[in-house]
């Protein structure tokens, strides 16, 4: 997918986000209104029948869930031999990345929640 290529549904690729076992994810912008989304792109030619069914189930599941802690689904479409799923973009990455980051913070320094109950609340004046 080239960086400046508009998609079948008028999306412009802004940047490559990552690659998983089924395909690649891009940050895209819908040209009609400037909204940004994550576009998950999978080559259906290289998928087995079971993988195609898994992808269809993923789309059904995403479309059926509406919760503030779950990435929201926008749409899905075929662009040639590519299945494209348009979802909410999570700029902070996935949950695994967030957990690893939080662990590093807690292992590297005392957390304010741990310090404050033992002493006084730090202020700008000292």
UniProtKB/TrEMBL annotation:
SMART domains: S_TKc (SM00220). Pfam families: Pkinase. It comes from the Eukaryota. Keywords: ATP-binding, Kinase, Nucleotide-binding, Serine/threonine-protein kinase, Transferase. Residues 11-126 form the Protein kinase domain. It catalyses: L-seryl-[protein] + ATP = O-phospho-L-seryl-[protein] + ADP + H(+); L-threonyl-[protein] + ATP = O-phospho-L-threonyl-[protein] + ADP + H(+). It is an enzyme of class 2 (transferase). One of its GO terms (molecular function) is ATP binding. Its EC number is 2.7.11.1. ATP binds at residue 40. InterPro entries: Kinase-like_dom_sf, NEK_Ser/Thr_kinase_NIMA, Prot_kinase_dom, Protein_kinase_ATP_BS. Belongs to the protein kinase superfamily. NEK Ser/Thr protein kinase family. NIMA subfamily. This is non-specific serine/threonine protein kinase.
